[in-house]
Write the structure tokens for this entry.
Amino acid sequence: NSWEYIKTEVTGEKKNVAVITLNRPKALNALCNGLMLELSTALKSYGKDQSIAAIVLTGSEKAFAAGADIKEMAPNTYSQCIQGNFLNDWTEVARTQKPIIAAVNGYALGGGCELAMMCDIIYAGDKAKFGQPEIALGTIPGAGGTQRLTRVVGKSKAMEMCLTGNMINATEAEKVGLVSKVIPADQLLGEAVKLGEKIGTHSSLIVQLCKEAVNTAYETTLQEGLKFERRTFHATFSTADRKEGMQAFVDKRPANFKNE
Ligand code: HXC
């Protein structure tokens, strides 16, 4: 595939981890409409590809993404935003059924931070910086910065970030639970791929159910979430992979999952 704003490759020992690299260096990977369209196209195609176990989304050493494209968005009017359904292309990331890991080096600002938060797991390079600077542009976050961030880091920290526009560094992002690990910048992508490979050793069918169950914690009440989890747990008992996983334990051998 020939992309203008992204690069894609399939990697890992079993060639089962897809890496999508945002590649618009002149604008610090500002997320213009063309880039978001390519990203959602690539995600849809990897999402359907049975040989892909996990997807890694990354940027450059200097920027994961410096936000929505301010220059492109500046002339928008209210009615254009509404009628053009502005940001509709952004939802594909959160809709992907496969695990998606953000490997964030450098700036993840505004829409860049929101894009990272749409992913399932965030690994940060030690020079990463996260922020929601929209307030300084006279607007507010539009793709989860006031919602996902608040659920992840709590009200006080999210308010502070959204109302000041101040950035937090990788160490602080780990402390508040926004990222699950901080890694030296030059090892970040390798570690993210290893994480994808580890997930890829499990049944992709069960991984998908598990991802849905964790996401349900963000989308509904505790009571509804627990009910969904219990029923989904029960549902695994109808799969060949659940039988195989438990039998393999009893037999003291590695499981051989068939993803069914
Ligand atoms: C368009 C951008 C951009 C952006 C950087 N560039 N961020 N273009 N949209 N979000 C461009 C610059 O204009 C410049 O182009 C080139 O990238 C390099 O950027 P510099 O500013 O020269 O780099 P530096 O001095 O190192 O500063 C880095 C930075 C700064 C701190 C990240 O670029 C910055 O503050 N960017 C904007 C961050 C931001 O406000 N993001 C939120 C956007 S609003 P030229 O042509 O001059 O070389 C948003 C809303 C989301 O995301 C709503 C829902 C999706």
